[in-house]
Amino acid sequence: MKPVSGGWSLRRRVITLLTIVGVLLIGLATAEAAMAARNRTQIDAILNQTGPLRVQSQELLNAVLDQETAVRGYAVSGDPADLGPYQAGLDQEKATIAAMRGLLDDYPQIGQELRVVEETAEQWRESVAEPVIATTEQDGTRAGQALVTEQARQRFDEVRSAVGDLQEEILAAREKSAANVRNSSNLLVLLLIIAALVVVVAGAVLLLSLDRMVIRPLTGLATQVREVAEGDYQHRIATVGPPEFIRLGDDVDAMRQKIASDLAEVREARERIEWVNSQLQKQAEELTRSNRDLEQFAYVASHDLQEPLRKVASFCQLLQRRYAGQLDERADQYIAFAVDGAQRMQRLINDLLAFSRIGRLTTGFVDVDLNKVMGDVAGQTEAARQYADAELTWTELPVIRGEEPLLTNLLANLVSNSIKFRRPDAPPKVHISARLVGAEWEISCQDNGIGIEPEFADKIFVIFQRLHSKDAYPGTGIGLAIVKKIVEYHGGRVWVDTDVPEGTAIRFTLPARPEDVEAAAAADPAEQPQSATAGDTTPADEASSALPEHSAGADQPDRADGPPESGRTGDMRETVG
Fold first, then answer.
1. Which pLDDT does position 434 carry in this prediction?
2. Which end of the chain is more exposed for a tag (fewer CB within 10 A), N or C?
3. Contact 46, 177 (CB under 8 A)
4. Long-range contact list for 137-141, CB < 8 A, 24+ apart?
């Protein structure tokens, strides 16, 4: 096969073939209809014209014979009754001739023969029958019989011969019609055979054309596509056949080129990814080594550095107690600086150790009741609350999946922060609340303290970032960094709500348990899930105002006055930031 880029399209070829076949079949059908009509006409002529004419010609002959017999009988007997058949034959002749003339429109030759019969019969009656009847009536039978001569019989034979010629003409016309019927029938059969041959030839041509123009090009295209699918993406796809198939082949080849180009890019990207993975693996190994070094440093900091720091702090305190007032005022100040520095170094090392252990020394997530956690937090912060005359309340809190020591440390840091950064003119009030937002619990810690300016809202969660001097508010500046790390370790986020009218509102999210989400949806199916954002200004205590409120106030046991600088929650050290 050769390419047919500029040839007829497959649609045009099929339409042309079908048009030719249709025209042929319509022509054959028209010819067959005409032949069928002609055949029906010829059959009608046989059945309704020549057939009745044959019968009527025989009746005409019988009528003439009846007349001739009646005349002979009357000439012998002289009985008028014997003339009855003559008159009946005459009437029958006239009726038969009238009936035959109604069927002779298409047969003029038969009409001519019929007129000959009519004239010959009339001549016979005038020359023979009427004279015999009249003579017999007047002169008797003998005279009548004398007229029935050989000449009279010859005249009647002429009548009989004329009727015979008429019958032969009718028979010839019938045979001709029968021959025409046979010829038209044979032609009709021939036309049907030709129509069948046209259909068969057209089907064969269509089948061969489809094989040549459709099946073979498609098979070749499929073979080439399989070669490409098996991995030979550089194999160029060449298609032959009608223009549609050539365009299809070009489109498939364009797709192959696009796939080959994309695969080349994928290979390059894979190579780059493998290179990046190798680099990441190296960095991971480096990070592993660095983590081992950091763990070693943490071990050293928690053991080796703690001991000399304790000695320095202890001896500085001994110097302070033993020689206080014995040296000059500057010496006492220097000793106080040394004692404070050693203690601050101890607190800083402990806070760094606590920060580094978050997420590294894990006990696994369990169901934690935050109401129980708040009870522990209230106990840990009792001394600080007594010292500052602070009020700590909370509404009904949920049960979440997490580590109880870390969550206790988280809430203790927030409560301690709220107590520490209080206003001097009002007793501190701290409220913890929670609400379900979508699939998360949003927990808020709101106080009436000094508040945070919006430009510092993100800065307070950075480690060692302080907004005040250590003389105004003591601490290492790591408390809220620990809060942020604990929240993120549990899959949540933390932010400062700067739109509260008074104090500070620190909000954080924790994933809710599936059963809590389902229970909330079943309780209020019409309520649509809300999306919690860092800019949500709806106070959490308003969302949970219908819940029972718990308080950790003056009914708690009294403890020593003075703000605690540190406490312990389980295995984690709680630090006031």
1. 92
2. N
3. yes
4. 140/78, 141/75, 141/76, 141/77, 141/78
| Average pLDDT in the chain | 77
- Dmax over Cα atoms in the chain, in whole Å? 213
Q: Is the pLDDT of residue 535 over 60?
A: no
pTM (2 d.p.): 0.44
- Which residue in 339, 333, 331, 343 sits closest to 315, CA to CA? 339
Choose among 151, 170, 29: nearest CA to 106.
Answer: 170
First to last CA, the chain: 88
Which residues, 6 or more positions from 217, have their beta carbon under 8 angstroms from its beta carbon?
1, 239, 240, 241, 242, 245
Query: Are the C-beta atoms of residues 335 and 319 closer than 8 Å to each other?
Result: yes
Q: Give how far Cα 71 sits from Cα of 77, 97, 203, 329, 484, Å.
A: 10, 21, 77, 194, 151
What does DSSP say about strands 549-552 and 429-437: parallel, antiparallel, or unpaired? unpaired
CA 205/CA 395 separation, integer angstroms? 90
What secondary structure does DSSP assign to 400-432, as a single string?
EEE-HHHHHHHHHHHHHHHHHT--TTS--EEEE
Separation of CA 237 from chain center: 31
Closest CA to 556 of 323, 299, 377: 377
Q: Which residues of 108-141 are buried (b: 16+ CB within 10 A; e: fewer)?
A: eebbebbebbbebbeebbeebbeebbebbeeeee
359-370 confidence digits (pLDDT tens): 566 667 899 999
SS3 labels along 86-98: HHHHHHHHHHHHH
Residues with Cβ within 8 Å of 216's Cβ and at least 6 positions away in sequence, in order, are 1, 241
Tokens of 443: 């927990």
Q: Cα-flanking dihedrals φ and ψ of residue 510, to 5°?
A: -135, 140
Residue 433 CB coordination number (10 Å): 25
Measured in whole angstroms, the distance separating CA 8 from the mean position of its chain's CA atoms is: 37
Supply 414's token pair. Answer: 């927030």
Residue in 170, 176, 126, 178 with CA at minimum distance from that of residue 152? 126
